[in-house]
């Protein structure tokens, strides 16, 4: 997760330097007016600069019941995503979704968190599951109870359960 946070912070700092501003809050407001003009890491960086005026959490990270956070959470998915060189097309999208789930865990079910968090390290390394692999993983995760979900640490551990 640190790698994702660092990449978000770097993208945000680069935009601040390009624009030549130290007023990060105002720049964040500008970015969120049209997130489709920016890379998803910049949009996530903008969200990190702001607090929700309704619930007080980081903007986009509050409870599902918070309308403003729900709306802001959608901004990150309106942003651009450009695949990194040397990785399968779609890898960047998978990283964006997985990191959004990992960074705002309370917004997602234990099963969703488990799947996305398990895949994130491999996605960062450039891997992308096939549809069949993703479906198989989902079926394995759906067979776990809540305690097993919280204690699963990597994809290999999950695949070992399949062999039992």
Topology of helices and strands:
Blueprint: H1 2-19, H2 24-33, H3 40-49, H4 67-78, H5 91-103, H6 110-124, H7 131-142, H8 146-151, H9 155-163
Can you describe this structure?
With 164 residues, this protein is mostly helical. It has a domain at 1-80. The protein contains nine helices and no strands. It has helices spanning 2-19, 24-33, 40-49, 67-78, 91-103, 110-124, 131-142, 146-151, 155-163. α2 (24-33) packs across α3, α3 (40-49) runs antiparallel to α4 (67-78) and α5 (91-103) packs across α6 (110-124). The longest helix has 18 residues, at 2-19.
Give a quick summary of the entry.
This protein is an all-alpha fold and 164 residues long.
The overall strand count is 0
- Helical proportion, percent range: 55-70%
- Overall body shape: globular
Q: Sketch the topology as an H/E string, one letter per element.
A: HHHHHHHHH
Distance between the termini: 30 Å
Structural class given helices, strands, pairing?
mainly alpha
Mean pLDDT across residues: 91
> In what range is the share of β-strand residues?
under 5%
* Major pleated sheet: none
Q: Roughly how many Å is the radius of gyration?
A: 17 Å
**Total of DSSP H or I helical runs spanning 4+ residues:** 9
Keywords for this structure?
mainly alpha; 9 helices; 164 residues
């Amino acid at each position: 997760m640190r790698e994702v946070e660092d990449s978000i912070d770097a993208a945000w700092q680069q935009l601040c330097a390009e624009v030549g501003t130290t007023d990060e809050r105002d720049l964040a407001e500008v970015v969120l007016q049209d997130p489709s003009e920016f890379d998803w890491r910049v949009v996530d960086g903008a969200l990190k600069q702001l607090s929700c005026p309704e619930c007080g959490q980081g903007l986009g990270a509050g409870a599902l019941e918070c309308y403003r956070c729900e709306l802001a959470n959608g901004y990150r998915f309106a942003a651009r995503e450009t695949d990194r060189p040397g990785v399968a097309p779609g890898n960047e999208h998978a990283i964006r979704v997985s990191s959004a789930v990992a960074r705002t865990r309370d917004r997602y079910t234990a099963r969703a968190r488990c799947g996305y968090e398990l895949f994130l390290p491999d996605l960062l390394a450039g891997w992308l599951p096939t549809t069949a692999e993703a479906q198989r993983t989902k079926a394995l995760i759906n067979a776990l109870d809540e305690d097993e979900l919280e204690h699963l640490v990597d994809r290999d551990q999950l695949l070992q359960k399949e062999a039992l």
